[in-house]
Design goal:
15 helices, 2 domains, single chain, mainly alpha
Length: 256
């Protein structure tokens, strides 16, 4: 899935990057934070060479460059920062001015993802173990906590495709794109979506901008009712009203 479904690109925070530039930039920490270890490794090597050969001028240059980079990032437009380091997706870690003026907090997509990450991680593990029913249950839990997360919808599309549930698969693929999923090459080539791609309506679906035109759209409430049923039988098991065997049988029946 999205490996199958972890959001591999962690959103970068401009304020954290500035902090690293000021207090660890001489080691290249801000570069490592923004671009990975290799991006800052050169500066780290120069730092230790300067210490070994006692080149104070090099240390001063490294420090000045890091401070200048920190100042530039501090004054950088948030949208420009996100476009450069977050693939255009807002980091969502600090309230914007408009939200402060309105007296309400700004949207926090990273926080939303973190609330769902437990279930995404669990669902990913089950998916890789080919436990599709278990993966589906976990991804539905993630959906409840992050209903607009494109990765959650993409993973659900992959899971439904593996379960050969066409309508639900197309619905969540459409929702993934609508919520901001832009890696269309994964839609075109991911193994888990092969069943959807061989459907007669797939070409028209892609041509219409990843929207269904040949069948009634699945309603969001359909997954919600499934999730509610799963919750009820889980609570009944926890209360001891049904056995583990009964729980497994009911869960299997719901997932069909």
């Amino acid at each position: 899935m999205y490996e199958i479904a972890r959001q591999r690109d962690v959103m970068k925070n401009r304020y954290v990057a500035v902090f690293f530039a000021f207090f660890g930039g001489i080691l290249g920490l801000h570069k490592m934070y923004l671009r990975g270890f290799n991006a800052g490794s050169g500066r780290l090597v120069f730092f230790f060479l300067a210490l070994f050969f006692r080149w104070p001028v090099v240390l001063v240059i490294l420090a000045v460059v890091a401070i200048v980079e920190g100042i530039l990032m501090a004054g950088m437009d948030p949208a420009a920062f996100d476009a450069k380091y977050n693939k255009g997706q807002p980091s969502g870690t600090m309230p914007d001015k408009a939200s402060r003026r309105a007296g309400r907090p700004a949207a926090r997509p990273v926080a939303i993802f973190s609330r769902a990450s437990k279930w995404i991680k669990s669902g990913t593990k089950k998916f890789r173990e080919m436990d599709m029913q278990g993966a589906l249950a976990d991804f539905l839990q993630a959906l409840e906590r992050a209903p607009a997360n494109p990765v959650v919808h993409f993973n659900l599309a992959c899971t439904y495709s593996m379960l050969e549930e066409v309508e639900r698969g197309f619905y969540h693929l459409e929702q993934a794109v609508a919520c901001g999923f832009r890696e269309t090459e994964k839609i075109a080539g991911h193994d888990s979506l092969a069943f959807l791609r061989i459907q007669p309506g797939f070409a028209a679906f892609v041509a219409a901008g990843y929207k269904r035109t040949d069948a009634p759209a699945l309603k969001a409430g359909d997954d919600g009712s499934l999730l509610e049923s799963l919750r009820r039988i889980t609570e009944a098991r926890q209360r001891g009203e049904i056995s583990e065997a009964d729980f497994a049988a009911l869960k299997e029946k719901l997932m069909r």
